[in-house]
Amino acid sequence: MDFPLVFTPIEDAPQASLGLSASSLEPLYAAIQGHIEEGRYPGCQLALAWQGRLLVDRSFGMARLGKRESLEPNAQPVSPDPNLDDQAVVARPDHLWLLYSNTKVLIAAALWKLAENGQLRFGDPVSAYLPSFSRHGKGGITLYHLITHQAGFPHAEVPASMWHDMSQVAEFYADVVPEWVAGSRVHYHGLSAHWVLALVMEAVTGQRFQDAVRRLVLEPLGLAQDLLMGISGSAKERMSFLYEPDPERPGSLRLRSESSSETWQRSAVPGGGAYGTARGMAALYQMMLMGGRLNGVQWISPRTLAYAIRNHTGDRVDQFMGIPMHRGLGPHMRGHSLSIRGLGDIAPADTFGHGGVGTSYCWGDPQSGLSMAYITNARIPEPWHSWRLNQISNLVHAAIRPLG
Questions:
Q1: Among 97, 167, 180, 192, fewest CB within 10 Å belongs to which?
Q2: What tens digit of pLDDT does each residue of 186-208 get?
Q3: Alpha helices in 122-184 (DSSP H)
Q4: Strand partners, 372
Q5: What whole-number distance in Å separates Cα of residue 220 and Cα of residue 208?
Q6: Whole-prediction pTM
Q7: How far apart (Å, rounded) are the C-alpha atoms in residues 77 and 65?
Q8: Are 229 and 213 in contact (CB under 8 A)?
Q9: Cα separation of 59 and 278, whole Å?
Q10: Is the distance from CB of 169 to CB of 175 less than 8 angstroms?
Q11: CB atoms within 10 A of CB 156
Q12: Measured between alpha carbons, how far is residue 319 from residues 86, 184, 188 in Å?
């Protein structure tokens, strides 16, 4: 299947594109280019979509720096090696970038579909699907607690040595002792909750969670070439490498282990291990904005989306983020608080989205119908990371001008 959005360059159709124009987006492009010139990150993909059309699909900077580094302990400098940063590569729209926690939205979408099909309920206890999970007083933890970051075990991260054996993952989480009573706090669960959700998905479908997400979500929407649960084989030739600031060389970047770790790349860690393009994420959010429909396919009902994409946690403070995050069943909402992570302070209250640690944010704005994906390839620490997310999202919102 071809990519599900028609590409209509904004330069060719400014009056058909929400009042956006090449000139109104120039401050956005200049900000991204400025970040790259400052050495904040090597490269970036940016995509904007509206009413089923891809208006912007741009790449900036470099997908790979060619630093001649590898974090595999015995790697040999033989080219071509997809795990060796031995060639500088200019970023392209088809490059696959690590999505980090944007992966959570892919997991959520598969769960929405299973719920709509009557195969699970978010109010069900996890132990209804994974009986051993009820150990140590966890019998009251529900799927809803997991997906809204209220489950009570945010720091219980399964060792990487177990990632490729889901029976070990299941036993690990069966033995976890909660830190607090489920539902009593909102606290972002970086990876832990989504391992358990992946186990539930496998119990319900009889498939590996990676295959279930592809079958339930990515293939029906025509996104299987742009959003991947893990990365292997020939797809690695399209992989953008990931970097981070080098503490030993201020102002420089070094390669992160995700760029060369087969364990990471193949495991598709359900809380943060998917790879994708910005246009793929913009298309996924277009589906949500268009009532579950994309490229002529009514993938899910508007009522299921309305149930999932709303504020389920009110103005309760997420104790990890330090602010209310207005959690939905996957994406979070802008809400009415003074500020919000990633979506832009000036975003309408019903804007929804999610991000990836230190790198990216993707969102949909129901007021305008615009979806955005901004993905970079350096994991940047706070506070600059959150500052630039607000800057980028606000520049997109500000570029929307009245028609006529």
A1: 167
A2: 999 999 999 999 999 999 999 99
A3: 143-147, 166-174
A4: 48, 363
A5: 18
A6: 0.94
A7: 15
A8: yes
A9: 9
A10: no
A11: 20
A12: 41, 11, 7
Q: CB neighbours (10 Å) of residue 23? A: 11
Q: Could you give the C-alpha distances from 46 to 1, 19, 231, 340, in angstroms and in order?
A: 23, 18, 21, 21
Residue with tokens 């929307």: 400
402 upstream amide cis, omega within 30 of 0: no
Written as six digits, the tokens of 317 are 């403070």
Residue 316 gets the label, from left (phi > 0), alpha (psi -120 to 50) or beta, of: beta
Q: Tell me, rounded to whole angstroms, the distance of Cα 384 from its chain centroid.
A: 19
The tokens 């090597």 sit on which residue? Answer: 42
Hey, what are 79's tokens?
């080219």
Q: Which of 341, 353, 336 is nearest to 388 (CA)?
A: 341
CA 131 to chain centre: 30
Amino acid at 12: D
Written as one letter, the residue type at 44 is C
Q: How far apart (Å, rounded) are the C-alpha atoms in residues 344 and 370?
A: 14
Length of the chain: 404
Query: Could you give phi then psi for residue 202, rounded to 5 degrees?
Result: -65, -40
Distance CA 13, CA 11 (A): 6
Q: Which domains does the chain have, with CATH numbers?
A: 6-102+214-399 (3.40.710.10), 106-206 (no CATH)
Residues 27-85 have pLDDT tens digits of 999 999 999 999 999 999 999 999 888 999 999 999 999 975 544 434 343 334 556 67
Per-residue pLDDT tens over the stretch 139-192 = 999 999 999 999 999 999 999 999 999 999 999 999 999 999 999 999 999 999
Reduced to 3 states (helix: H, G, I; strand: E, B; else coil), residue 62 is: strand
Find the helix or strand (DSSP H, E) in which 351 lies.
none
